[in-house]
Amino acid sequence: MEAIDADLDPFAALPAVDHDGLRELRERCPVARIPVGWYLSSHATVSEAPRHVDTFVASFRQPGVVVPDDEKFINEISGPRHGRVRKVINAAVAHHRAARLEPMIRQITREYLQPVVDAGHGELIEQVIAPIPINVIAHLIGVPAADWPLFRRWSDEVVEGTYPTMYRNERGEGLHGAHPEFTAYIDRLIAERRSADTDPDDLLTRLLTTEIEGRRLNDVEVRTQLVFLIISGNETTRHLIGNLIAHVAGDPDLYQRIRADRSLIEPAIEEVLRLEPPIHVLLRNVEQPTDMFGPAMQPGQKIIYGIAAANRDPQVFDHPDDFVISRDNARDHMSFGGGPHVCPGSALARLEAKVVLDTLADLVGEIELNADWKRRKVAVFWANGPVDLRVTLTPATR
Amino acid sequence: MRITVDHDVCELNAVCVSLAGDAFAIGDDDRVQVIQPANAADEQAALAAAAECPTQAITITDR
User: Fold this and answer.
1) For the segment A187-201, what is each residue's pLDDT rounded down to a tens digit?
2) Res A71: pLDDT
3) How far apart are CA B60 and CA B49, in angstroms?
4) Of B12, B19, B52, the CB nearest to A94
């Protein structure tokens, strides 16, 4: 076996993304041999690799973990079948449908934010930011609003345990074993929809009625993709919004500029996505031998796309560690991945982040991070967002 | 510049709408619509969208 370039464990849950260490790695060895396989840290390699979906197959699972086809998340399915399932999901969350959700997102953001503004202080992740993405995705799927809090708790429980990497946790194997309450609820939702007289125009109806390769998805497949959407629409968008609000709260001058000129919101979102990507590593399995990046990569090895590292590559971004609100290539970051498995929810995520910051700017004149607050990353190894966000708020004067 | 989208290949990833919102839109029928670029900047954006389309469903030819 060839020498290890970096003793780096991509599954380790660190308290922060090690940007300094990644810079050193990118300069020294942009295609690095690590104990489980390979780590890509340059923009050129991280943007190229996702195009090769037959060579590198998506998997958050530990080496050797086998998942039945019906329980493979959409990001783990390859070939034409992936495209057909994706089109159903994409149609539901793409631009034209995301935009229609804006009034609903605005309304729930105000409902969650106003009490914190009235109190003058609060913990924004728990009180405002976390509820929004899960409510939006539950609404898209067709879950009754009364059940949204349950969805959020269950989604967190599935993500925080070993299920995503091991296909099992301490409760049992498969999603049904790992979280029986979650699967029972979704199974009941599917059964009710199948027996209902009407088909509401939501994602659940689309998943149930679309034929793929001559047949409809079975209940387990529908459940699997719903759960994946709930997980991916929940955790990731929460971190985007958390990172965004933490950044502007830490830069009062920027916050006042944004309040005065809302056209700065979208570029601010792109810079925060670039500097602190909600998913800082993507994991793939090497499926076919390849030397496209130089060294020989073999099946059985993992390959890690270093999103956070690529996003600060000075070959692509000048002053890569600085927040620069007017970059020409602001959207060249890799935070939504690329290639056929590119994030289908990017439009929705950007919209949610925009609405939250815009609403904050409407309601809050000044926002200040509490003096004793320090950014701590959530424990989920691939995720990068603050655990909490304690702030003091001054209402906007009208 | 002439832009066409192969709707059988398109999976509605909407990367084109994200990169070139003045050249592409998605209609209520869940199909990508092409808006012929009006200026050089829109043409550049459309070329980038064609290059980045995850399923390579966009074809651009000189008229």
Assistant:
1) 999 998 888 888 887
2) 85
3) 10
4) B12
Element housing A39 (H / E): strand A37-40
A383 phi-psi bin (left φ>0, alpha ψ -120 to 50, beta other): beta
Residue-wise pLDDT for B3-48, tens only, equals 999 998 898 888 898 889 899 998 888 889 999 888 998 999 999 9
Which letter does DSSP use for residue A297 in this model?
B
Smallest Cα distance from B19 to chain A, Å = 8
Amino acid at the residue A264: L
CB of B11 within 8 Å of a chain A CB? The answer is yes
HEC profile of A14-38 = CCCCCHHHHHHHHHHCCEEEECCEE
Its sign, for the CA torsion A44, A46, A50, A53, is positive
Tokens 């269950």 sit on residue? A154
Nearest to B11 among A86, A96, A346 (CB): A86
Using CA atoms, how far apart are residues A47 and A131, in angstroms rounded to an integer? 32
A294 by Cβ neighbours in 10 Å (0-12 / 13-18 / 19+) ranks as exposed
Instruction: Residue A96: list chain B partners with CB under 8 A.
Output: 25-28, 30
> How far is Cα A167 from Cα A33, in angstroms, rounded to an integer?
26
Are A161 and A13 a contacting pair, CB within 8 Å?
A: no
By residue count, chain A amounts to: 398
Read off the pTM.
Answer: 0.89
Interface predicted TM-score (ipTM):
0.78
B9: which DSSP letter? T
